[in-house]
Amino acid sequence: MEESVTLTDNRTGRSIEIPIVGGGVDAGAWRKLLGGIWFNDPGMATTAVTSSAVAEIDGEAGILRYRGYPIEQLAERSTFPEVAYLLVYGELPTGAQLDEWTFEITRHTFIHENFRKRIYDAFHYDAHPMGLLVSGVAGLSTFYPEAKDIFDPDNRRAQIVRLIAKMPTLAAAAYRFSRGLPFQFPENADDYPTRFLKMMFDVGGDYEPDPPLVQAMRVLFILHADHGQNCSTTATRVVGSSHADPYTAIAAGCAALYGPLHGGANEAVIDMLTQIGSYDEVDGFIAEVKAGKHRLMGFGHRVYKNYDPRAMIIKAAAHDVFKVIGKNPLLDIALKLEEVALADDYFVSRRLYPNVDFYSGLIYQALGFPTNMFTVLFAIGRTPGWLAHWNEMVEQKSRIYRPRQIYTGAPKRDYVPMKDR
Ligand code: ACO
Prior knowledge:
Layout: E1 4-9, E2 14-21, E3 24-25, H1 27-33, E4 55-58, E5 63-66, E6 69-70, H2 71-77, H3 80-89, H4 95-107, H5 113-119, H6 129-140, H7 153-179, H8 192-201, H9 211-223, H10 231-240, H11 246-257, H12 265-276, H13 282-290, H14 309-325, H15 330-342, H16 345-349, H17 357-367, H18 374-395
Antiparallel strand pairs: 1-2, 2-3, 4-5, 5-6
Helix pairs in contact: 2-9, 3-18, 4-7, 6-7, 6-11, 7-8, 7-18, 8-9, 9-14, 9-18, 10-11, 10-18, 11-18, 12-17, 14-17
The structure holds acetyl coenzyme *A.
């Protein structure tokens, strides 16, 4: 039997039956019955804004799959360019497809010299690198005006390749600018994470990252590559839905990611752990969280009501990194926080578990990244996901985003001259 819901308008007695399809009901039927009555859904928590084949998330069960492939398998066996291809094109590439894709990405890593010198150099020396990245990605659109032709699939592919290729270059350039270090050119012989680490940290040509560190970077990029209709992906889609070029749409994604409730949480976790300062202060801090004085950063998720599967993988990767580098002293505080929170009714009853950001910052710090680069790293990883959704949206010929509101302001009133106020 087909599953359905019945809506009744008690003002008129009219009813309408709406079939449940793929876990959703068509808002068109609601509109038909209840024209002018808006579905009041702050934060779009109960609204599916699109159908999408990119990532499947089961928040109750703690499951994340890209195009059907479990995140655990991809983190163990895949590379970041391969995952990017999978997200954008829906299938794992053949050997020839992967070679061509990797070749293209490798050949498009450079940014125009004018861009680096004139755009980045215009910022103040202590500018936050996310500010540079947001502006930098938007600025790229002016170098590729043909990107506006979004309905040509070949043209879309060219911009997708450029963005995936250039994000690490923009990110590393932002970091080196803030340190007063000369820009390091990308090396074609390196794989994607090694190239990025060298652009970040090589001074004088003798930096060679330890293989476990490259592995950690690879895993972190893969784990961040997509997460369905999250805040930044939605921002990308909203801007892209007006047919803006992909650079401008991805800049909107970066901007949304910057906030501490989204991609900025990993930075906030390190600040929180540093502020707690010692293992013995954990119980006191948890009491303050329960009293509403702070949020436990890196905990809780709109979708996951179970352990975030990405957090599980990152926790294991953190141990591998610490074997090479030595333990980050904040790890003990994080482990105790997790243990105390997971045994406490406040967190258990609200189903608050560690999310992707709880352990990622500890690895980033161990790899040598300053905290203000953490969200930038997230942005590099998320770029293929943003692009996959943008590409899907263009292919779907979706409508422009234009939600409604429940107006709560003043009723009509007449303008009051200044002397009478
Ligand atoms: N610490 C303490 N209490 C929390 C936390 C937290 N981290 N998260 C939620 N709660 C509590 C809320 O106070 C609320 O309690 P109440 O019912 O008594 O009022 C309840 O749990 C529900 O919280 P909401 O804010 O309604 O949950 P929402 O789904 O809107 O927020 C969010 C999700 C923003 C991730 C939230 O859990 C949070 O602020 N976490 C900390 C920031 C963080 O780690 N963000 C990264 C998310 S992952 C990512 O973006 C990549």
